[in-house]
Amino acid sequence: MDNTIFAQSSGTIRALENKLIDSSKFEALADAKDFSECIRMLQDSRYASYVSMPSYEEGLKMALEDLYKDMYKITPLKSVVDLPAARYDGHNIKSIIKGNILNTDVSDILIEAGTIPARSLGTMIKDKNFKEMPDILKDAAIKASEDYEETHNPQYIDLAVDEGTFGYMIDIAEESKIEYLNEFVKTYIDVTNIKSYVRMRSQNKDSDYYRKFFLVGGYIGFDMFESFLNEPLEKFGEKLVYTPYYKWAKDGIGEYLKTLNLGHIEKFGDNFIIDYLRKAKYINMGPEIIIAYIFAVENEIKSIRIILTGKKNKVNSDIIRERLREAYV
Question: In whole angstroms, how far apart are CA 288 and each of 8, 108, 291?
């Protein structure tokens, strides 16, 4: 593909990158004396209006939704934004199905950042009219509802929808004919599988259980995970020594084994993705710059949420700092 079609959008994003929050700012926010001071310190950022809303959580959700609106406006190929946006289709489908089961209004947790408007998804699922939904998501939604009716286990809703969501992402990447999107989605699947594997080992689950949650389509096959099920978890990182995932998995597993806090696996996984995306800094134009910026802002929003929630609940600054993700800049 001729990357010159991304020339204008790449230039726009380069300008937007200058407004990203760097590590020193996040350190200062973590050290702020209280919640109100954090809000004041964010007044010189793009989040000023969002965090000043009556609910900063609602504000940060709006910031995420606005990110995707802006990216769709400036990106020449919709599929580049559709790839990360598909994750919010999955989130919304799961939330709607669970809301219908519990007869609960879930509109406040739906995120208008997917490839399909959340309200439309709600109508499709309620009416069981899926003709406007991509087949792979339709099949996932139907399977999720049927599996729940059979098992009454909400975990099977997540299982079916996650499988469909990642399948949808693979379809988007393949149909785009953009090599980078295919490479990225395979990497993202591997990182997700590694995180799931550690979570499963923490619960002492067997091979059959993990196979249900294993996502097909990454670079690493199920056999590699299965072969280490009876080995100490700390040795699993060594199994990845010839893969790009070696350091983050080894360090993340090490932190988990010290603290038994699975949050470290999530954090180290998020940091790996950000580090992986940083190669976009060294190219002049291309889809890499768009994908990297989307994840950089998502990561930024996640860190702001961690800080504000911590300050609101008077959590120690060292604990807040420990939970923060790496900044893209």
Answer: 14, 32, 5
